[in-house]
Amino acid sequence: MKKVLIVGAGGFIGGFIAAESLRRGYETWCGVRESTSRRYLTDPKLNFVTLDYEYPERMAEAMAGQSWDYIVYNLGATKCVNFMDFNRINYVYLRNFIEALTDCNIRPEKFVYMSSLSALGPGDEKGYAKMSGDMIPRPNTRYGLSKIKAETVLQTLPDFPWIILRPTGVYGPHEQDYLLMIKSIDSHFDFGVGFRRQMLTFIYAEDLARAIFDALEKAPVHTKYIISEPRAYTQKEFRSIVAKALGRRFVVPVRLPLWMLSIACKISEKWGAAHLKATTLNSDKYNIMAQRNWDCDVTPAIRDFGFAPKVDLEEGIRLTVEAYRKEKKHSQEMKTPRWMTIVIIIFTLPLFSTPWLVRNCPADDSAVKTLVQIYPFYMALSGWLANKAYPQRHYVAWLLLAVMALSTAAIFTLTLS
User: Fold this and answer.
1) Which residues of the chain have pLDDT under 70?
2) At what angle do helices 235-246 and 177-186 cross, to 10 degrees?
3) Residues in a beta bridge with 203
4) Which of 219, 225, 222 has the alpha carbon at shortest distance from 203?
5) What is the rounded CA–CA span in Å between residue 267 and residue 262?
6) How far apart are the first and last CA of the chain?
7) What sign does the CA torsion over 212, 214, 217, 223 have?
8) Cα–Cα distance between 319 and 323 in angstroms, integer?
9) Residue 150 to residues 153, 177, 224: CA-CA distances in angstroms?
10) How far apart are CA 230 and CA 310, in angstroms?
11) pLDDT in tens, 11-38
12) Distance between CA atoms of 369 and 375, rounded to whole angstroms?
């Protein structure tokens, strides 16, 4: 049984790669950070190795004594608060990992690096010719530039068995950026930017995972491949497919000029920097959304390792919408219903009588005074806990409300006695 290490397995795509690895019968190892969520890595057959990408020597120590036949390097950042982080995460971390492999004397049969179509930059924006792997990269985003730098690291290693994959926009259950578009259409609005025709390409996450392992098993080393569904879609076609999957017959297409998008991205980026949060809309996102032609040629992948996506956009969106609705239903079930919120508010209303209670409290009873002073904070906290507890533990919420009622009766009795 061959061993596979998936570096950066904790993200959206990583879960699909791990699932495909197990499906093919490989002994699967997931390289994750100490803080990485394992939400999509729950299969008990998975093995884990904790990697600190900042320090090659620590990674070498963690991997000492191990060996893997295949390594999939899926680690990367698509949006950052500080754009220097793109260079650190997408370029420096790869360089550190390669150094750690060398220190451990680990040499896989093949090493797949997950790059991006954005690494190539804009293609033919007027004639709409397909982007190809042979074109000279001209990345116009910091994200794309960091990916090209990482590719260059590998290409300077003639004895290292690298394969570079450049997937287009990846979508599927749990993905967040395309989910924003789906939610918008679910609300009967489709927001697009620019007034010239835009050709979009997509790859479903499971198809990408299959392509990774087909490349590992069949593709020659020192090769680069674009990974995408073989056809492109217009914004109108995408909107129609999503609307059909959502059952939305009426969707209002809203076209915004690029200058308006530019302003929105700059404001969002400044807000994110001020709050130390990575935002979806930023300068990089502007360049990506402004690009008119994402059509691309996947012939080399078809020729070299039989790349053949099984899920077209219509089926992929159907599956994505199905997962979105399940999560939406679960989220709604995890919320306290409105009627229960009203009940909780009614039970907490007596706390507003605190000033009256203070005035009527026995002057010579310090214990009662203390209880009256604590009472409003106790009631507010109990009401908040009841609201939080109700979705999963109804009985706890009702028990808290009963105690609140008894406490109110007791405090009024002590004050008026």
Assistant:
1) 330, 332-333, 417
2) 70
3) 170
4) 225
5) 9
6) 80
7) negative
8) 6
9) 5, 24, 13
10) 11
11) 889 999 999 999 999 999 999 998 888 8
12) 10
